[in-house]
Specification:
Distance between the termini: 15 Å
CATH architecture of the largest domain: 3-Layer(aba) Sandwich
């Protein structure tokens, strides 16, 4: 059985690579400006969904479009429904790329491009795994439905919409995490803090024109920029201070404004310790400047008091951990000042056994001391599936059979579709010891590892479709 399926997977290699190239070329970043009927997340996400559903039809699967929120590909109707949950949307490319994010390039056995590992590569591996199981001719008791969402990165509205139209699968996995098996995911809390930002009365005095730090809340920002206005002599002094305080940074003049660029290092918000948040050194620098309006300096001093200590949330009063999932983590993902308003957006990943509501109450109390009124727009409970659950043990056995390695199930700070449905866990695609490149510049997937993923997904599907 294993040999037959593996032979089929290997025969699909070139088709899998071409299919992934075609999908990576589509910049399927959510775009509200181009949203409309049948394309609730924008034109490019719609285009990517159409492309993957067309591919699924060519592979011989039954497909269905759920009003542009999600699509499905599957075969069979008997027995239990085994589900696969993947997504076609991607985060914006951000800064720092050497490769082109939407012009896939293969170099040294790796395909580079936004979405290669999160989640288009694993999606392709899972689709061809389905094809191998069906074409193997092996007897099956259950059927499979691959649900492809369009809004995984910003709110899971896609899977929520799907579940208003269909019941959830009986069991399954998402190829959107790590191996061996992810049996627990931290809780997620996302909030924002807004303030009015008044235009300066004294144009010659030092003042903020604009601030832009970060592009998405669930990635550590690798660039933060501030545009400063004021008299030429004042700005010249600020530039000297900047070059001393931030020798790696860059500065340039644009008309009468001085732009200062603070570099950082991107990472996924679930592992902020792997990155370097560019917003934090910008705040530390700005809080010491002699702004003409003292409220501007006070604003940055307040932000520094709340978030300047790093990613553990100690200044906020929420630092905590549990034995299962480790420490709480925090990411100040976006900071903007423009058009009369300032806005900060923060991502919190909370240990599985810690009360999210208590964390939120503490955040509110601490922020209010500094004159902020935080507002949350997303609070997602953690996921926990016991290690001895049948689904977890089946997937661990598959992983051992295919790789020859027995690994313990793991916990992560990331949030997948698995917490939206019952009896689901994440299964790959990142192998133990390999870097987590989701949301980072020069994202790539190792093509041999993609083939290994396909072998694992095919064997997992066969086990689940015969249990």
């Amino acid at each position: 059985m294993e040999e037959r399926i593996n032979e089929l997977i290997e025969s699909y290699r070139e088709d899998m690579i071409r299919s992934l190239e075609d999908l990576v070329k589509i910049p399927s970043v959510i775009d509200p400006d181009s949203a409309g009927e049948g394309k609730p997340f924008g034109a490019e996400v719609r285009k990517a969904l159409d492309a993957v559903l067309k591919l699924a039809e060519e592979l011989g699967f039954d497909t269905k479009d759920y009003d542009g929120y999600a699509g499905t590909a599957g075969f069979g109707t008997e027995g239990k429904e085994v589900g696969i949950l993947s997504h076609i949307d991607v985060v914006p490319p951000g800064n720092g790329w050497i490769k082109e994010p939407f012009a896939p390039e293969i170099c040294s056995g790796k395909m580079y491009g936004r979405g290669t590992i999160d989640d288009k590569g694993p999606m392709i591996a899972a689709l061809y795994a389905m094809k191998a199981v069906r074409e193997s001719g092996l007897p099956l008791k259950n059927h499979v439905r691959h649900i492809i969402g369009c809004d995984e990165e910003t709110g899971h509205r896609c899977i929520k919409y799907y579940l208003t139209k269909e019941r959830g699968p009986d069991l399954g996995f998402s190829p959107d995490g790590m191996f061996s098996v992810i049996h627990a995911e931290k809780g997620i809390l996302r909030f924002k803090m807004e303030r009015e930002w008044e235009k300066p009365e004294n144009k010659d005095g030092l003042h903020i024109i604009k601030v832009k730090g970060g592009t998405v809340i669930n990635a550590v920002p690798n660039l933060a920029e501030v545009w400063l206005g004021g008299a030429e002599g004042i700005l010249a002094d600020v530039k000297k201070q900047f070059l001393t305080a931030c020798p790696q940074g860059e500065s340039h003049w644009k008309e009468d404004a001085l732009c200062l660029c603070f570099p950082g290092l991107s990472a996924h918000a679930m592992q902020p310790w792997l990155g370097k948040n560019a917003i934090l050194p910008m705040i530390r620098f700005l809080k010491e400047l002699p702004f003409a309006d003292p409220r501007e300096q006070e604003y940055f001093r307040s932000l520094d008091a709340l978030f300047g200590d790093g990613w553990e949330g100690r200044n906020l009063g929420i630092a905590c951990e549990d034995q299962l999932s480790g420490k709480l983590s925090m990411n100040l993902g976006i900071l903007t000042i423009e058009e009369g308003k300032s806005e900060a957006k923060i991502d919190i990943r909370c240990p599985v056994h810690v009360d999210l509501q208590m964390i939120w109450k503490t955040i509110c109390l601490t922020c209010e001391k500094y004159g902020f009124e935080p507002e949350y727009w997303q609070m997602r409970d953690p996921l926990y599936v016991p290690k001895d659950a049948e689904l977890v043990q089946i997937l661990l056995d598959v992983y051992e059979d295919v790789t020859g390695k027995r690994e313990d199930p793991i916990t992560i700070g990331g949030g997948t579709y698995c917490r939206d449905v019952e009896n689901f866990v994440s299964f790959g695609p990142v192998f133990p010891g390999e870097p987590e490149l989701a949301h980072e510049a020069d994202e790539f997937i190792d093509l041999e590892q993609m083939m290994e993923c396909a072998r694992l997904y095919a064997q997992a599907l066969y086990r689940l479709m015969t249990c």
